[in-house]
Amino acid sequence: MLTVVAVLFFLFLAIGVPVAFALGLSTVPVFLVGDYMPLTVAMQRMYGATQSFPLLAVPFFILAGNLMNATGITDRLLVFARLLTGWMTGGLAQVSIVLSALMGGISGSAVADAAMESRLLGPAMERQGYARGFTASVIAFSSVITATIPPSIGLILFGFISEVSIGRLLLGGVVPGLLMTAVLMAVTSLVARRMGYQPELAEKPRFRELATSFVDCIWALMFPVLLLIGFRFGLFTATEAGAVVVVYALAVGVLIYRELTWTKLIDAMRDSIFDIGMVMLIIVMAAVLGHALTVEQAPSAITGFLAGLPGDRYVTLFVVLAIVFVAGTVMEATVNVLLVTPLVLPALVHVGFDPVHMGVVLIILVSVGGNTPPVGVIMYTVCGILRCDFAEFVRWSWPYVVAMAALIAAMALVPDIVLFLPNLLM
Amino acid sequence: MPGLLTRALALLRRAEMIAAIALLGIVVAVVLAGTVGRYSGNPVTWSDEVAQALFVWLAMLAADLTLQRAGHFRIDVLVRLLPPTARFLLDLAIKLTVAVLLVALVYYGSLLARLSDFRPLPMTGVPSSWAVAALPVAYALMIITTVEQIIRHFRGLPDSSADGRDVM
C-alpha cells in the first residue's frame, strides 16, 4: 500500500502537480482500499492540522518580516552596512553580505532578502564592473544568513513540525549565522582580490558617522535581542512573541520611521496571505498522508532503517544529510522542512544527536538548496532580477558552495557551534 | 465568458482577499489580547480558541487566493522538456484531476461540518461546525478557481503565475 502511495506521490510531483495536491491525490488509494480511514476521518485530520496554537507563530513572523521591509528600515540598514564594510576589498559584495546579516534580525526569509538586495545593490555592483555571476552568487548565498539568524521562518516551522523548542532553535541559529557571515566575507575577499574589484569607499568611516548610522538602525538591531530575551525569560510563547513582533514592526514603521503607509501595510498583508496559503495547504494535505503513514508504521520503519545503518552514528548522519541535500536541490526549502525533515529527524535523535543541533544544520542545508539547480528559488529570483544566466551563476558560485559545505560539515561534527548559546542561556 | 459572470468573479475574489486580510489582522489582535490579558491579571480565556477557529478560515481562504495566482509549489523542470501539445494535455489532465479531488473534499468536508454541529467549542460554546465549514467552503472556492483556469487554458491564456517565492 505504502509503495503505491509513494510511487503515486513521486509520479505526481514529477509531472508538475502542485506539491499540496500531489499529497492529497496520492493518498486516494488508502481510502479506496484501507479500512481505517474513511474520507471524513481525512477531513478531520485536515481540520486538526490547523487547530494548533503554536502554528500561529508562522503567519505572525511572516507578516512581521513583510511589515519590517515596508517600514523603511532597509535603507537605513544599507547605509550602516555600507559604512561598516564599504572600504574593504570588493566593497559592495561585502556590503551585501553584512546587509543580509543585519536583515536576518528582522526578517526570516532568504528569498525576500535576495530579491530586495538584487534590486537595491545589483545595479550599483554592475556599474562597479563586477561580473554578473559574481554579483548573483554573493547575493544568493549571503541570503542564507538571513534565513539562519533569528527570527528564522525555517527554524520556527521546523520547531512546530518536529516539536522542538522554538526558543532554543532560534538561539541555536545565532552563532552559525555569524560564522557564515565571516566565512562568506573571507571567500568574497579572496575572489574580489583575484578579480581586482575595488573598495566602494575610499577610506574607513569616521566613528561619528558610524555611531549616527547605528543609532538610526537601533530599532532593527534591537529586535532579535528583544525577541531572544522574551524567549529566555519565558515572557511569551512563540505565538505570542509573533503577535508582539507584528505590533513592534507596526510601531517602528508608523511612529518612529513614519514611512509605513496604509497602502504599504495592505501590500505587506497581501504578500503574507500568499505565503500563508502556500504553507498551510501543504500542512493540511500532508496531515492526511501523515495519518496514513503512521497507521502503516512508516515513520518507525524509516527510523529503523536509517538508525540501523552499519557503522557508527556518523554514517546515519552522513546519509541523512545526503538525502536532505538531494531533496534540497529539487524542492523548495519550505516543502523540505514540512515533508522531509520530520521523517529523518527521529532517526538522528535515536542515534544520539540533539534535535536542536540537527534542526539548525538541516535548515541551513535546505536553505542552501535554494541556490542549486535544477530547482533553486533563490537562484531563480536573483538571476531573474539581475538577468544573469544560470550557467554563469553556477560557474561563479562554486567557491561559495565549497565554503558552505565545509561550514555545514563543521557544524554537523561540532555540536557546540550550534548548541553553545542555547545551552548557555536556556 | 459573459461580462456579468466575469464581474461577479472579480467581486468574489476581492471579497476573499478583503476577508483574508481582515482575518489576519483580527487573529493577531486576538492573540495579543490574550497575551496582554494574561499579564494584566484579566486572563482572556477565549483568545486561543477564537484565534484558532478564525485561523482555519484565514489559512483556507489564503490557500485559494494562492491557487488563483498559481502560487502553490510545483516541480516543472521535467514538464518543460515536453512538446507543447503534450504539455497542454498533461496540464489539462492535472487540472481536471485536481477538480475531481476538490469535489470529493467539498462533499466530505460538508459531511464533517454537519457532524461537528453538535460539538460546541469549550470556551465560547459556538458549534465547531462554524470553524470546520472553512474546509468545504474554501475547497468549493478552489473548484471555481480551477474551472476558471481550465477555461483560460482552452483559450490559450497563460495562468496568472506568481514570481518565484519561498517562505523561508
Record the SSE blueprint.
The complex is a heterodimer of chains A (426) and B (168).
Chain A: H1 2-14, H2 19-26, H3 28-33, H4 39-50, H5 57-70, H6 73-85, H7 91-104, H8 110-127, H9 132-148, H10 153-162, H11 166-172, H12 174-195, H13 207-232, H14 238-256, H15 262-295, H16 298-307, H17 313-330, H18 333-350, H19 355-368, H20 377-386, H21 390-413, H22 415-425
Chain B: H1 3-40, H2 47-68, H3 84-115, H4 129-132, H5 134-154
Structure description:
The complex is a heterodimer of chains A (426) and B (168). Chain A is an all-alpha fold and 426 residues long. Helices cover 79% and strands 0% of the residues of chain A. Chain A contains 22 helices and no strands. Chain A has helices at 2-14, 19-26, 28-33, 39-50, 57-70, 73-85, 91-104, 110-127, 132-148, 153-162, 166-172, 174-195, 207-232, 238-256, 262-295, 298-307, 313-330, 333-350, 355-368, 377-386, 390-413, 415-425. In chain A, α1 packs antiparallel against α2 (19-26), α5 packs antiparallel against α15 (262-295) and α11 packs across α22 (415-425). Chain B has 168 residues and is mostly helical. Chain B has helices at residues 3-40, 47-68, 84-115, 129-132, 134-154. Chain B is elongated and about 65 Å long. The model of chain B has no long low-confidence stretch (mean pLDDT 90). Classes of the chains: A mainly alpha (426), B mainly alpha (168).
Task: Using the alpha-carbon principal axes, give the shape of chain B.
Answer: elongated
User: How widely separated are the two ends of chain A?
Assistant: 44 Å
Oligomer classification: heterodimer
Q: Based on CA inertia axes, which overall geometry of chain A fits?
A: globular
Order of helices and strands of chain B: HHHHH
- Class per helix and strand makeup of chain A: mainly alpha
Which two chains touch over the largest interface? A-B, 80 and 60 residues
Order of helices and strands of chain A: HHHHHHHHHHHHHHHHHHHHHH
Computed over alpha carbons, the radius of gyration of chain A is: 22 Å
Through-space gap between termini of chain B:
38 Å
